Amino acid sequence: MFVEPDGRISEGGTWNLGFVDQDGTVIWPETPVLPGTTMLLRCLDAPKQITAPVRLADVPNMAAAFATNVTIGVRSVSTLDDVKFSQDHPVLAALRDAYVAIPGERL
Predict the structure, then answer these.
(1) Relative to the CA of 44, which of 38, 66, 77, 100 has its CA 20 to 30 Å away?
(2) Where are the beta strands (DSSP E) in 15-63?
(3) Is 87 exposed, middle or buried (0-12, 13-18, 19+ CB in 10 A)?
(4) CB 24 within 8 A of CB 48
(5) Of 2, 26, 25, which is closest to residue 15 (Cα–Cα)?
(6) What is the CATH number of the domain that holds 92?
(7) pLDDT in tens, 40-96
(8) What keywords sit in the KW lines (predicted)?
(9) Residue-number span of the structural domain to which 74 is assigned
């Protein structure tokens, strides 16, 4: 996970990172990132999603965290430093369902 000098979380080496707050809102960290397909699609009709700064100090207040990229879809993150996250949060299930429902493209 990359962290900006001011403590803002951005992304991983080959994946975007998202969080779920205590109200069930998906938060995409607001920093310069390479937006991945899943992030750009916002998983279509998935739960409420916003882009906002997320700092390391905010992590303990998050209910869940997840990584996305084209090969893994939506994968829950179990731990960041000493903070453990729910692996079965209902928003994560909704995001996974929305990702799986994206129609494939013929090549």
Answers:
(1) 77
(2) 16-20, 26-29, 49-52
(3) exposed
(4) yes
(5) 2
(6) 3.20.10.10
(7) 565 555 568 888 999 999 999 999 999 988 778 889 999 988 999 988 999 999 888
(8) Aminotransferase, Transferase
(9) 16-100
